[in-house]
Amino acid sequence: MLRRDAFDNAEYVYELKMDGFRALAHVEGDSTRLVSRRGNVYRSFQRLYAAIQAELKCEAILDGEIVCLDSEGRPQFYDLLCRRGQPVLYVFDLLWLDGKDLRERPLVERKRLLRSVVPEQSACLLYADHVEQHGVEMFRWACDQDLEGVVAK
Predict the structure, then answer these.
(1) Hey, what CATH topology would domain 20-127 get?
(2) 17 tagged catalytic
């Protein structure tokens, strides 16, 4: 559901909306692929594939957004579109881990597991942190930072 007005609700978590290409990262054995919402494999991010494969020490399906960030850490869609800069995968959900389907587990539990598998100092994977309850405050901050918006889940 799309809403124009920010809201606070204890039943939601709030994340920054990233301006990039939505992708599922399938990391299996010695291969990684990034797949679009429509099931197309992104072919132009081979260096990102290799970096994810090298850094992730498990088999997983990650849900995220391929983005290029500026020096302030803000997504720059035009840079991504023109393939300028180094893309990263901003991950916000973990759907599958080492043979286990996690989709039926609560989101906060999946995010906790995701935090444990994404390396702290990764050059290619960024963990999408979240805020609980304080959607209005997060939305105001996102506006002050000139970011795309906030997603409530």
Answers:
(1) D-amino Acid Aminotransferase; Chain A, domain 1 (3.30.470)
(2) yes
